[in-house]
Design brief:
Number of domains: 1
Structural class: alpha/beta
Strand content: 5-15%
CATH superfamily: NAD(P)-binding Rossmann-like Domain
CATH architecture: 3-Layer(aba) Sandwich
Order of helices and strands: EHEHEHEHEHEHHHE
Radius of gyration: 18 Å
Mean pLDDT: 96
Bound molecules: 1,4-dihydronicotinamide adenine dinucleotide
Strand order of the largest sheet: 3-2-1-4-5-6-7
Length: about 260
């Protein structure tokens, strides 16, 4: 087999949560370029429709579904729609997330709960729903959870986000154990800092730019295309023996010098 063909997603169906912007929108395009049918799932359907018009001419087919990961009904409905259109989902990019820096002393009960509801409960809900359907249909699968380097090391102002992302790391490993016998692999990608809607205001500032120069050994932000390789590795046959792994894609940020 041509070694590069192992990275292809031809004939597979990939569901991407939070596909309306940033990392999700980018990797949805990559999945399409790799030959997959792509289910574009998020709350902002107008944005997804726009993305779908690109995706159509890149590779496989696309389907737009409205999804709120905080609602079980919404998650089940998205998988129902994917099954009706494509027969089922093989790969999930569990990417939807929120992020706002806040000092630990100021976080309200409401903000804490909202963070966990999306960034942890939502990831668990989507992964469980995907796995239940894969097992029921006897389909092998790959679930890729988007964690963060803030799930591996803490950062000032991120206690609520870090706690959720650390839990996503441990959830990914635990699910990998439970699901291995069903031929479902579960891994996590832990991005460092990539400029997206979540953080672009901060990285426009001098403070943000200085922080990156000081804290990241490679002295720069990540570019979205630098996530393509890790995503395709974990999604495709090329990663067939990788499960329970966390891949940091961060220019060395998490191993910066003490
Ligand atoms: P983004 O804000 O562009 O994308 C997040 C997406 O999730 C948006 O489309 C948003 O609408 C969607 N979303 C939020 N709540 C949702 C819900 N309840 N249901 C469905 N969709 C929902 O930001 P970005 O950077 O692309 O974030 C994607 C993932 O990457 C997030 O999980 C984030 O925590 C993670 N990440 C991002 C980093 C970065 O530097 N940009 C660094 C480390 C992790």
């Amino acid at each position: 087999m041509d070694v590069l063909k192992k990275f292809a997603l031809t004939g597979k169906t990939v569901l991407v949560t939070g596909a309306s912007s940033g990392i999700g929108a980018h990797l949805a395009r990559v999945a399409s370029q790799a030959g997959a049918n792509v289910v574009l799932a998020a709350r902002r359907v107008d944005r997804l429709e726009q993305l779908a018009s690109d995706v159509h001419w890149l590779g496989g087919q696309s389907l737009v579904v409205k999804l709120d990961v905080t609602s079980r009904d919404s998650v089940e409905a998205a998988f129902d729609a994917a099954e009706a259109q494509f027969g089922g989902v093989d790969i999930v990019l569990n990417n939807a997330g929120i992020g706002d820096a806040q000092r630990a002393l100021d976080i309200s009960e409401e903000d804490w709960r909202a963070m966990q509801a999306t960034n942890l409960d939502g990831v668990w809900r989507v992964a469980q729903c995907a796995a239940q359907r894969m097992v029921k249909s006897g389909r092998p699968g790959s679930i890729i959870n988007v964690a963060s380097i803030l799930g591996l090391r803490p950062g000032t102002g991120y206690s609520h986000y870090s706690a959720a992302k650390a839990a996503v790391v441990q959830l990914s490993k635990s699910l990998a154990l439970d699901l291995a016998r069903h031929k479902i692999r579960v891994n996590a990608i832990a991005p460092g800092f990539f400029k997206t809607e979540m953080n672009d205001a901060y990285f426009e500032t001098e403070k943000g730019q200085n922080y990156i120069k000081r804290a990241v050994p490679t002295e720069r932000l990540g570019q979205l295309h630098e996530l393509d390789g890790p995503f395709l590795l974990l999604a495709s046959e090329a990663g067939s023996f990788i499960t329970g792994e966390v891949i940091a894609v961060d220019g060395g940020h998490v191993i910066n010098s003490l």
